[in-house]
Amino acid sequence: MAIDSSAFQNIIDDFTVDAEHLRIVAADFRYDLRKGLADPDASSLRMLKSYVGLPTGEEKGEYLALDFGGTNVRVLRIRLDGDGKFEVLKKVAKPLRIAGQYDYVGKGSTAEEQFGFIAGLVDEAIDGDHETKFLLGHTFSFPSSQTDLNNARLIIWTKEFATAGVEGQVVNDLLLAALKKRGIENVEPRAVINDTVAVLLAAAYKRGATYIGSIYATGHNTCYLEPYAGEATAPMVLNLESGGFMKLAPNRFDTALDEASEKPGEQRLEKMVSGRYMGELFGLVLAELFGEKKDYGFTSIDMSSIINDDTKEKHNVQGILKDKTGHDIDTEDAEHIQELASAIVIRSARLVTASYVGILWQLAGDKPLEKQHIAIDGSVYEKMPLAKENIMRALYELLGEDAAQVDTVLETGGSGLGAAIAAAMSQK
Ligand code: BGC
């Protein structure tokens, strides 16, 4: 099969965010941020209060950290030593779903089963010790509305989670009930934070000068420290749930993906940029090019391998394509397909950067941009070829020489560390 060049070029154009559009997205993002500060209902950003500011770096003590944000749940025992230092003393991790064995995230699973499974992990992390008192920080990475640091109610599942009976509930109540059922009364949940908040706390604890925390992985979202400058309110981290940002120009593949998703109409930015969806978008384009109505099951890891194929003949691309779609393609088509994967990743990095710049503009106001880090965790940022370099490129495009004030830093494992820090901060 030879890919029709002009149809192909149109598709690449559909996935291209040019300089002008990039600036519009950044400006719209800032606009929604300002709107949301005045009234979250008037904005596509949820602007959720976290009831936490930034740590001093001097937080100390041993804590349990529960990291629940994707199919892999982790529980860690972490000792904070102050001076930005810490040690992970124990770590247990298990997937919430193993195909053919069990599934605590899909339709048909219940809150009780899900949190029962998590309580089992907590039990492992404390080695079955039901005596010693443990304070627990919980990184719960779904949109939740909070009334204080420890009270978070799940608004809506994202990332295709569909477990019944969790939406609308206070998640630490579900956790407490599950712990109690297992006879664990010595673990006290003290804080619930979003993973973006955890990443920001972890980065601020270690290196200071960080006001924006972001996840660029299976899901996507960003938080920042709102200074409430000139107001009596203390600075607080706001979880934007920026994956729900709407002022975008979705193409027909984005629309098809959204329509077929668990929550149509929700998380429009996330569905255009995150690891959970990029492979699917890529597959939708290929299905159109091949004239088939099939879900080939491409993942962002496949896209990464496709982009990384620097052989002249593009044998790896050909192999992956054959494997997933059954089609034999020649080198020229393999080059096209590689270009398509790159275009999807580059668009993703540019849209994500536009959201960062919207926040930077808001933070700077009419003052010069402060020198700072943006803390990012996640597999797409860390491993996806073209992601980091296109973030930097787009930062320079939007900020000009001010971009030298900002760098992005990888904050691996921030979700666990941040939960421990939040538990420590809850004692103040
Ligand atoms: C969730 C966010 C989370 C992000 C990254 C999104 O789907 O809505 O709360 O921060 O994924 O895990």
Features:
Nucleotidyltransferase, domain 5; alpha/beta; 6-stranded mixed β-sheet; 428 residues; 14 helices; binds beta-D-glucopyranose; globular; Hexokinase, domain 1
Structure description:
The chain is an alpha/beta fold. The strands form 4 sheets. Strands 1-13-12-11-14-15 form a 6-stranded mixed beta sheet, sandwiched between helices. The protein has a 5-stranded mixed beta sheet with strand order 4-3-2-7-10, with helices on both faces. It starts with a helix and ends with a helix. α10 packs across α11 (331-364) and α11 crosses α13. The chain has helices at 5-14, 19-38, 111-125, 171-181, 195-207, 252-259, 268-273, 275-290, 300-308, 315-325, 331-364, 379-383, 387-399, 414-425, and strands spanning 48-49, 60-68, 72-82, 85-95, 97-98, 102-103, 134-140, 144-148, 151-154, 187-193, 210-216, 220-226, 236-239, 372-377, 406-410. The protein has 2 domains: 5-47 and 205-410, Hexokinase, domain 1; 60-193, Nucleotidyltransferase, domain 5 (2-Layer Sandwich), CATH 3.30.420.40. The protein has 14 helices and 15 strands. Bound molecules: beta-D-glucopyranose. Beta-D-glucopyranose (BGC) binds at residues 69, 141-143, 158-159, 194-196, 215, 219-221, 241, 243, 270.
